[in-house]
Amino acid sequence: MEYLQQALFVLMAISAIYLFAKKVGEIRRNIFLGKALDLSDNAAIRWKNLLLLAMGQKKMFKNIPVALMHFIIYAGFIIINIEVLEIVLDGILGTHRLFLPLLGGIYNWLINIFEVLALGVLVVCVLFLARRNWLKLKRFVSKDLNGWPKTDANFILITEIILMSLFLIMNAADQLLQQNGAEHYAVTGSFSISSFLMPLFEGFSNSTLIGIERTAWWIHIAGIFAFLNYLPYSKHLHIALAFPNAYYAKLDSPGKINNMPEVQNEVLYAMQPELAPANAAPPASFGAKDVFDLSWKNLLDAYSCTECGRCTAECPANITGKLLSPRKIMMATRDRLEEVGKNINQNKSFIQDGKSLLHDYISVEELRACTTCNACVEACPVSISPLDIIVELRRSLIMEESNAPQEWNSTFSNIENNFAPWKFSPDDRDKWASEMAS
Question: Rounded to two decimals, what is the model's pTM?
Fold first, then answer.
C-alpha cells in the first residue's frame, strides 16, 4: 500500500510538472511572437529594478497598510514553498518529515515560522476578499473585471485560505499523533499556531488522526500542484513574470516616446537626398495593428499584468468618464495573444482569423482618449507600460488607416506645411512683435 501511494504521488507530480512546463513553453512562444527588441543594456540598473520593484515591491509601499498585507502573502508564498519541498520529497521517498533528523532543533523553529506566515496569509486573504466583494473599492468593481476576471481573483484567494488551513490542520493532527507515540510520527516539539487547533481533534483514535493528517497532506499537495497548473491561465502569473518584467522595464526618462526610425529616415533623406540608399525599401507598416506588430516586451507586459487597476485608477481620461482603461488595454492584449496561441496550437502556424488587436479588442475611442501623460506607467507596481501599446496602435490607426479626428488632421497639416501646429506661415510667425512695436 505504501508503494502504491508513492507511485500515485510520483505520477501526480510528473503530470503536474509536465502540464505546467508545456503551458509555460506556449506562453514563452507567444511572447516571442512580438518584434525583436534589445534590452540587454545597463545590467546593474536592471538588477536593481528587479530587487526593488519585484522582490522589494517598492511601488506598493505608497499605500503602506495594503503593501504590508500584500508582502505577507508574497513572503508566505515564497517561504512556505520550502516546506512544500519537504512534502514533495516525502511523497516520492515514502518518508515523513524528511528534514527533521537533518535539521534537528532548527526544524521546529522553521515550521513555527511557516505557521505564523500561514496564519498571516490566511488572515490577509480574508481581508482581501472583503476589500474586493464587500467594501466595493472602485477599481475592483469596474466593468473591466466583469465575468471571469472577478471570479479568478476570488478563486485564488479562497484557494490560498484552504491551502493554509490544510497546512495547519495537518500539523495539529501530527502533534497529537506525536503525543500518542504513533509510529513514524517523530517528536518535533510544539507548533505555535496549529497547537490551538489540537483541542478540535482530542479524543480521536490514532487511526482517525492519521486519516485526518494524511487527507490534509494529500489535499494540500494536490492543491499546490493544481494551483501550479492554474497559474499560467490566471492573472496570478505575475507571481513569476514580475521578475523578468521589472528587469526589462524601460530605463528612458519617464514619459519619453520613441520615434519611428522609418519616419526619421524619410525626413533625413528629404533634407539630404544624397544619404538615401539606392535600394531603400518602404517600411512594411507603421505602428501596430495586431500582437505580431508589438515588441516582445509589450507582450511580456500583457502576461505580467495582475489586473490590480492602479493604472486605471490614476488615468485622468478614465477618471473623467472616458472609455479608456489602461488595465483593459493590457487584458485585451493578453486575450488576443492567447487567442493567437490557440490558433497556432491547432494549425501548427498562425492562420489568419480575420481579427486584430486594433478594432476587435481595443476600440478607436479608447485610443483617442489617451493623453500620453504616463500616469499608468508610474502607477504600475512592476512598471508595465500600457502607454507603449496605446501609442503603437494609435500610430497604425493614423498612419495606416488615416483615421484621425478632423482637429488632429488640421494640426498634422499645419505641422507639415507650417512647421508648427498653428495655421500661420513661418514668415509671419513674428509679425505680432512688429505690430506691437508700431
Answer: 0.86
